Amino acid sequence: MTRGIFQRWVVAVALSAALVSTARTDDGGANGQMHNTTSGAELDDARADNENTEAPVDAGMEDADADAGDDADDAAPPAATQPVRAVARKVGWIELSGMLREGPAPYAFFTGDPQSASLHDIVKALQHIADSPEYMGVVLYLDNPMLPVAHIDECHQALRSIRLSNKRVIAFAESYTLNAYLIACGADSIVLQQKGTLLLTGLALEEWYLAGLLEKIGGRADLVQIGEYKGASDPLMRTGPSRAWDSNIENVLDDIHAQIIDRISQYRGLSVPKVEEAFTSCWTMTDQELVDAGLIDMLSQRDLVEITEAAFGVDFHWDKSLGGQQQQRQQPQNPMDVLRMFMGAQAPRRPTRDSIALIHVVGPVTGGKSRPTGVFGGQSTGSRTITKALRTARDDENIKGVIVRIHSPGGSAIASEVIWQAIRQVAGEKPVFASIGPVAASGGYYIACAADKVFISPGSITGSIGVVGGKFVLGGLYEKIGLTVHRRTRGPVGDMFNSVEPFTDEQRELFTQAMQRTYEQFTDRVTTGRGDRLAPIHEVAQGLLFTGRQATGNGLGDTLGGIESAIGAMAGQLELKPGTYDVVHMPPPMSLQEFFNEMFGRGRIETPSISNTTAGLLEAARHAMGPRAWSNAQAVLNGLTLLHHEPTLTLLPVVIDVH
User: Which CATH class is domain 349-466+502-651?
Assistant: First the structure.
């Protein structure tokens, strides 16, 4: 991009923002303690116990109300039929579509991201409904959500808090996929649009094996793996899975599938055999047959009027502002106000009262700075960015404790070690908890085990304690295309990572010894961090994978619970009462001023540059393959990119989602 074109782009941004601009919402104030899932009968008993109690109002949550008619589409909530009383009676309306973001948006000055809502936004909004007496309940509109099992776990805990507060939760969809149905199981009532469908698909995982492709083009991967069950070398060196990896991944899939069956059985009051049968029979059932089978509670017209009047009466109004769905708008008076807002308003807020820092580790772990997006999509976490955030949290007197939220398959071994050391330094002065999201495996768990306590959802994936490393050998490809490589080297191992030939026996032996040392360092960090809570290391290492439910049994995790559980436990340990502290998200998103500074020479933006043609091909591939296949392709491709920069990785080779 030339300077002239870029300047015209800046002017266009300013003029557009002069017409419509958005203000960022406050991230502070989330403090709800989470609970374990219970059956419907237990929930009714708990509701009776809580009948005469009133939940406190979250002081950090703003009270923005939205008229149901504003910008409403066909999926908008039905209009309340009576005037609003002086003391508002509200019903929340939250739409879930696609995926939820982990952590802050990457750029502070772009607000049009379709994934603008984060998991924390949604859980905080649900907890606000539970705690605020003016709310009567919430309606969840499920428009093809694609949440990992761990995110569904966390949403269920928040929905349970609403139901325990004697408030109603209604889930509605035009058609239910397995993902949407699992979310809906946390509601009091599952409502299906008339003539809609329920399609329970189960789990599916597509793994890429590239050895045959590499052979066709004259290449090969020359990798060393430490950890029998690790499986990270399989996609590049084999045409199918090894027996060890097969048993490893099958164990995890079995447990996640069992959790899904158990959850539907528990919430719907159906026997396990009935639920298992429904995965086939639901595909041919009519809408009324789904109701008769107990899989759906009610059928409804799209406007939901009869359903909502029966649940909430007619004297209420809708709040659509929850969960990051509707940004508050400002109307700057002139373009200079716009520029001033863009250049200064997004500066990170320093805590002004007692706070808990929530530090997000999202995506592959690399050295250097975090990147908001990679060549193949998805953000990455840089050790320099995270250690800076940890130092800031350690040195700020208002930050009383730190929670490291991890959603990462791992990556660079040395970058994971750098972050481990930084966490232990903070833990010497302030309490540090880890909250594991959908996955914290390999290098992701390397980071987690440094915390004082590890919170993990039942459906999270963790473990994969092992290392893999090596190089790509492209001599055959060079020969095919007529390329001659003349190598020059100095030193006994200067030529170890040449791209023409595989390792010699001597080089392989030396590299294997180095890899073994990295593995021993990894296991030492795990045993040091977990102490006597951990099962014998040989039972949890060697690349073995575990679900969160399994991890709390073998000592890799401490407590089943999500991000709100960790926040609540931290507040309790620090003796911080609800409404008296803030939650500060770190590292903050990049402001427009920081973007300009790095663009014009005061640093550099570490974002891969790809041509428009390549970007278009990748986007076409993503759409053609679908989200499930693309997620696993992305994992392999990002692994290839990491291996190009660093020969030793702690990386999980697959992505497991319920889509």
Answer: alpha beta
